[in-house]
Amino acid sequence: MKKAPTPERAKRHTQDHYTTVSTYGERLDAIREALLNAGIEPANMDALLSRLTDGQLIRTGTASKPSSKNLWLIAYHDSGLPFVVVAGDWATGADMKWIAQTGDTMTDAERRELQRRLAEAKQAREAEQARQWEQAAARAAHHWHESTPANPNHGYLQCKGIQPHNARQQGSDLVLLLTDFNGKAWSLQTIDEVGNKRLMAGGRKAGNFIVVNRHDHPAHILICEGFATGCTLAEIDGNALVLAAIDCGNLKAVATGARNRWPDAEIVVCGDDDHQTEGNPGETAARAAAIAAGARYALPEWPDNAPLTLSDFNDLHQWQKGAL
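User: That's the sequence. What structure does it adopt?
Assistant: Structure tokens below.
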């Protein structure tokens, strides 16, 4: 299974904190604790807390991705002290809101001012996220046009027993374009010879996908997680539009988007069967996506002697050919 933060997971990380503290140092300690409790860990906590300027959007790296700008934070001050802090991690979806006093101590005017500041913070971070996505989209389009059609003998394609389809190549990496239903490029995924996968930093994934097998007016649509699985499905059913959602956390957004785009099409969500993982997240996500999109879902049908390590349609096809 290709793991990703889902909307449900992000929601569980969202936390509100009300803290009664008076001194500047106490408030910084409370903010520090609130960030960590919400699963938001900056690469340098002390440096971040030293930058708390009233109303300024701060972006910085996280402990897991120090070179990124995934962590965002906005602080508002009252009488020179941080009063409200909202923060989050764009990579995981975690976010939190910290307030320096309980709601019971606020006057009506203070509550209105708090709501105004929170709305202002929300607008600022959404604008910054949109700007980041647009910059990544421009980079993705540039790299895509600079790349060349993928070599069918690329190591990953050979290992997976698949054709390149729409993949391109830059150096030794396969280059896969993530687009929306209007055809706009938003991000890239690269895969090296041994199968290491990377998504473009700052790119927009949610609701976007890799078009593996294109049909302009599809009657039959197959939606899966990974590119190799999508290639296998496209080679089994050449008449289908095949979309790879990257991971199970993105299946629902892609499936519902496809239903809105092609309301009369037959849609099948082709899930990974993560039978060795508790809760079988691949099957669970595929079923939920199918229900949300008014579609069907399918899992690989394993023969009795199939190895337990197999999980997706590419695994099944490769094993049946004797390649696994």
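The chain has two domains: 7-105, 149-320.
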